[in-house]
Amino acid sequence: MSSLANGQRSLFDASIRYPLTPPLTRGCPETSTEEIAYPVEVDYDYGRVPRELFAQQPGDLDQWAPILPPLVAPGLGEGGTPLIQLEDGVFVKDESRNPTWSHKDRINRCTVSAAAAIGAPGVVVASSGNHGASAAAFAARAGLPCIVLATADTPPAVGSFVSAYGAHVLPVAKEERRPLMRRIVDELGFHPLSNLTETHTGHAYGPEGYKTIAYEIFSEIGVPSAVYVPTGYGELLFGVWKGFTELRLLGLTERAPRMFSCEPAAGAPLARAVAQGLPAVHLKAGPTDAYAIDCDFNGYRGVITVRDSGGAALSLTDDEMRAAQRELSRTGLWYELSSASSLAGLRQVGERDRTGPVVCIATSSGFKDTGVGARPLDPVDPTWDSVLRRLKAAGLR
Amino acid sequence: MSSLANGQRSLFDASIRYPLTPPLTRGCPETSTEEIAYPVEVDYDYGRVPRELFAQQPGDLDQWAPILPPLVAPGLGEGGTPLIQLEDGVFVKDESRNPTWSHKDRINRCTVSAAAAIGAPGVVVASSGNHGASAAAFAARAGLPCIVLATADTPPAVGSFVSAYGAHVLPVAKEERRPLMRRIVDELGFHPLSNLTETHTGHAYGPEGYKTIAYEIFSEIGVPSAVYVPTGYGELLFGVWKGFTELRLLGLTERAPRMFSCEPAAGAPLARAVAQGLPAVHLKAGPTDAYAIDCDFNGYRGVITVRDSGGAALSLTDDEMRAAQRELSRTGLWYELSSASSLAGLRQVGERDRTGPVVCIATSSGFKDTGVGARPLDPVDPTWDSVLRRLKAAGLR
Q1: What is the pLDDT of residue A397?
Q2: Which candidate in A394, B172, B186, B316 could, as Cys together with A382 as Cys, close a disulfide (CB 3.0–4.6 Å)?
Q3: Res. B397 pLDDT band, cuts 50 70 90
């Protein structure tokens, strides 16, 4: 069945509607101001969505085609990731099991499809890592040229990753990325796969890919009590929330989870916006190793998710995230520090108000961390006595 | 349904049988000699295997429990990886989509289960990377101490990976690993998850995990004409072959694929053993960047797979593997060099004798390669003129 998408509508005022194409890549023209840009979202002909869609065992994104924007670009088997039980009632949604080993593959299937649908000559993305590599992979698969505006301090292993798919990788200073990106969009006609506005709006079709995470969770354990989400600009947070609200809209459930955004305490613009009752704020984030979710401003999507779901905007220190990262790796799951923010959030909240299972979303593998590969292995004297001493010193016997 | 495994039998002489436990970790005691060790395999009560097992959409290894050794250790959602279409009739089985991003997770679920089943105080593995990290992850999940005998030249990023799960990582010279491993097995009672013998026998339960790849391929596209497999000691090659022969044994198909082993030309002991009609050979491998499949000796499992399937033992140069790696990454799939040996093998053979779809198995992500992270990104002057010049120089407009 083909897509039932029938338009775009403003997130600030749902009565303001636009056609489905072209995708609005600078947010809602009517409601956005100098200070704040409001995103749009994709709307569907929900009355025609077949309920059987949700009775299947989850596969990749193609399975949800009726309730996604048109999937014009070919896929790489993105989505359909496992839900791993960590302890009684606590699950980890392992997004490192995607084609480029992060959640970003869900978004890029949809946004590269948008570029292909409008016949764009190429795509451009500003990214510190996962998003850029994923965009490059889907662009390569679709045969579209791709420009990645990376940052000069990209960890070397991530640099290899971003460069692997044949994209044009241009490392520049963080603040130079958006002006360059706008120019590439305006002068070369390339389709932007990441944000162009002062406060975050992102791509109109992006969260549509993320909402399939909610469908998958629902088909495995129903509606959880709460979902904890590593949060940068809040696209993943909003996307998962949108998925659950659609399930409610379709009459498949009456409940929805509380959504907890998990930001690095070093910045946490969403937490500040929520605390101050503002749609968006700018700030200057301090240092954190959770570089994948280290943001100086938030998006309105995050604000409405936390508000409408009755959740909370959490701030996590690097130490809290490191403890969660260690807890995960000691049970066989190795994620980058940013990914561990979700379990860190759960540990901060504890069992308070928990009425059922909870899900922590883990976005990406440990390979993306800044410290990876920085230290060679400590050599060891291979004599038996020495090995035995070392094992005993490590507490083995 | 619980496991229908009912014993171990010699691969050299199927009439020689042993009980299911303890797992024979030094091959078949009765047929092995000073020069050559013969492996054993797990046998099942095939008459009781429910045929409905193969009618389901593939999930993780637990789905195949009746036809696997007892899965005593908890899983991490291993298996159920996607089959990606590369071109008409050519598929890539993407094993980088496992819990530790390689095929090794299938083997370690089974072998760590063996250790848990016999109450071993810990596990030990000799590995250059993927196998060690995967063993460490499943041991951590099962709460078992794990010793990884790494090599001193492990790439730094892989060193971080292997160390992440809390194992005791001991980097030693390649030739020191087996003696130390035997000592750890003999004196500490740790269960070995990798080979202990002079020619390769590996763990009796290992290929059982790999055979689920055949079940998954079968449920998606039936029996392919040929399967190309990155080949080190031939466990994966044999495991996939065993899965297809079981499907035939169970009456689900009459056909079986031709199996092509894909070794680095720098060594290729299996190709030499096959050419000389020997069960196993020793040689001194030259330099290759395909370190994950760089072996000085082969296992008997590979010889019988190539022989019985009517396939061939291929040798691939690093240049051939690099061309295949590049071809894959330009369609959105980034694998380590060793993983690209399978597509390199297919490109070497061409369409000769192809009677249906073919499958290339890709074992692991590009993050594991030796060159990853070695070179920082080239900085770029962020002025528009300079960016435009650089893009034009790269052929963009």
Answers
A1: 65
A2: B172
A3: low
Closest alpha carbon to A348 in A228, A232, A223, A214: A228
Average pLDDT value for residue range B147-155: 87
Question: pLDDT class for A236, splitting at 50, 70, 90?
Answer: very high
From edge to edge, which strands make up the β-sheet containing B17-18?
B17-18, B5-10, B40-44
Contact B171 A396 (CB under 8 A): no
Q: Return the number of CB contacts < 8 Å for A and B.
A: 207
Domain B83-100+204-368: give its CATH code: 3.40.50.1100
A136 min Cα distance to partner chain B (Å): 7
Q: What is the pLDDT of residue A372?
A: 83
Check if A371 contacts B (Cβ < 8 Å).
yes
Nearest to A160 among B137, B147, B373 (CB): B373
Q: What is the DSSP letter of A190?
A: P
Question: Cα distance from A344 to chain B (closest Cα, Å)?
Answer: 18
Give the CATH fold of the A1-101+203-397 domain.
Rossmann fold (3.40.50)
Q: Which residue has the tokens 């008459």?
A: B47
Q: How far is B247 from chain A (nearest CA, A)?
A: 24
Question: How many of the other CB atoms lie within 10 Å of CB of A58?
Answer: 21
A259 membership: H or E segment, kind and range:
strand A258-264
- Residue B276: is its pLDDT beyond 90? yes
Does the CA dihedral A103-A105-A107-A110 come out positive or negative? negative
Residue A32 has pLDDT above 70, yes or no: yes
ipTM computed for the complex: 0.95
B367, A367: Cβ pair inside 8 Å?
yes
Q: Where is pLDDT greater, at A372 or A387?
A: A387
Domain boundaries, chain A: 1-101+203-397
* Contact assignment for B171 to A379 by CB distance below 8 Å: yes
Query: Closest Cα to residue B94, out of A80, A363, A74, A76?
Result: A76
Amino acid, res. A151: T
Q: Nearest residue on chain B to A368, judged by CA atoms?
A: B367
